[in-house]
Amino acid sequence: VDHKLPVLMLMVDYLSFKNQLKESLELGARTLKQLGEALPQNPGKGRILWELLLTKRAIGRRTDEELLALPTVSDKRVAATLSLQGAIFAPTFFSNAPLLMITVLRSVRLSIKYGLHPEWSPTSFAAYGMINASIGQVDDTVRFQRLAVKMLSLLNSKTGRCWTLYCSYVLGLHLRSPIEDSMAPLLESHDIGMKYLLCGKGLMAMETLLLAKFMCGHPLPEIHALMDRHIPVMKQHHQTWVAALCGMTHQHILNLMGRNDDSRLCQLTGIAMDQIETKEALSRANHEIGLNAISENCMQLNATFEQWDQAMSYHNEMLERPEGLLATRCHFVRRTFNFYSCLLHFVQFRRTKEKKHLRKGLSRLSFITKCVKNGCPNLKTVLPLLVAERFSFTANADDVEDVYLQAINNCRYVQLKALAHERAGMVMLERFEDCTSWKSHLEAARAHYFEWGAMAKVSHIERKLTEKRPD
After folding, report:
1. 312-335: pLDDT as tens digits
2. Structural domain spans, the chain
3. Of 19, 111, 136, 147, whose CB count within 10 A is highest?
4. Is 80 exceeded by the pLDDT of residue 262?
């Protein structure tokens, strides 16, 4: 198999970026078996925990300096195995989270035993950090992902920089540092991917960079212009998960800007992508992350336009795909999911008085609060608004007004300030029939949405002001 390996790896990559994830994994698994590294068919939690225990034992008490001092792998067969494990990283990440964990853990052990692979070992250590985050060991997450970034320079990695920077800054380091810190590494990841013709990986980094800008409140027209610049390249990858993921973000932004086919539709249908066709293609490929990304974008849009029942329906769709949630558990987009999940349950409790929503909302709020106490700066940006929502159930009018104003002042991003004003206005109107406060908050929200470039939301608020204007 040795002399065929370059072609086989190329085929694994090709099938993956054509969204044929199952076929890519099958080819990779067959080749690994021929190299003496058979992968389990359906690894359960027990198998994953055993592999994790073996890996922690292999690392032992080695310091970062000792791990960085490991030699470069010299055994060609082991190097080939590590290369192939790197090749199946993408298809396992998007469709088979348990197998991803097994592959990463074995790669780390091989690197410790036989030496570091310049292009794959740094990524495997970064992904190992991600696994630690999934079990709540955030200190180890930060340690191994920073170690992975140091390895890149030490090993003079080239193509490996693309995945390692992505994994480190998107799948872990944000637990201790602001999302803004990921923007420069993601741009570098994109540039490296395009330089070495790893277009799928490079475009994925660009899509995630634009998503980071979106989450951090950058003007929507600016993000839209950047997307337009990359759409021609992405169209060449229209059958891949890259175009699907970017198309969702692009369509979401177009909807907010009021530039989709029908601005009344709070779903991803319009000029950026064919939503039904994309969903069918992702379903055929068992692309759990892509399917959840569609549901999450639709959940956000419906919540943004106060279509709460539809938003909850999309939220529940995501819960029905646990593997997709597991794979993105450490991704910085989970900040958005956790926020909207908590907000949705609180709003539904206010609307329906069903205590199950209150319990679930409080559970999510407790989780977010715990993350903030453990040093996560990104969830800290959304916590004040959720605390205000919880506080508003029982507090008097003056206290509710005060706690929402505190939340607004603490919101770092323009879209969160707008949403906080909007929620404050609705609570003051529905609970206390305070039309003056309601109007004041909605006018402030309209100004913030205008600043952001979300003209569909500006129109939405103007309609509310017209329809509910007191006599």
Report:
1. 999 999 999 887 787 778 888 889
2. 1-177, 355-467
3. 19
4. no
Nearest to 90, CA basis, from 232, 229, 175, 203: 203
Position 124 confidence tier, pLDDT thresholds 50, 70, 90: very high
Q: What pLDDT, on the 0 to 100 scale, is given for residue 471?
A: 43
CA quadruple 445, 446, 447, 451: dihedral, nearest 10: 100
- The alpha-carbon radius of gyration of the chain (Å, integer) is 23
Mean pLDDT of all residues in 272-296: 80
CB 327 within 8 Å of CB 103: no
Q: CA–CA separation, 376 vs 381, rounded Å?
A: 10
Least Cα distance to 445 among 334, 429, 112 occurs for 429
Max Cα-Cα span within the chain: 82
Encode 185-194: b = buried (16+ Cβ within 10 Å), e = exposed: bbebbbebbb
The Cα 175–Cα 378 span in angstroms is 7
Identify whether the C-beta of residue 291 lies closer than 8 Å to the C-beta of residue 275.
no
Say how far apart CA 298 and CA 296 lie, in whole Å. Answer: 5
Q: What span, in angstroms and rounded, lies between the C-alpha atoms of 150 and 446?
A: 45
Q: Are 64 and 147 in contact (CB under 8 A)?
A: yes
Alpha helices in 305-413 (DSSP H): 308-319, 322-327, 334-352, 355-373, 383-391, 397-410
Please name which of 397, 370, 368 lies closest in space to residue 385, comparing C-alpha atoms. Answer: 368
Rounded Cα distance between 78 and 76, Å, is 5
Q: What is the DSSP letter of 19?
A: T
How far out from the chain centre does Cα 46 lie?
26
Contacts of 380 (CB under 8 A, 6+ apart): 372
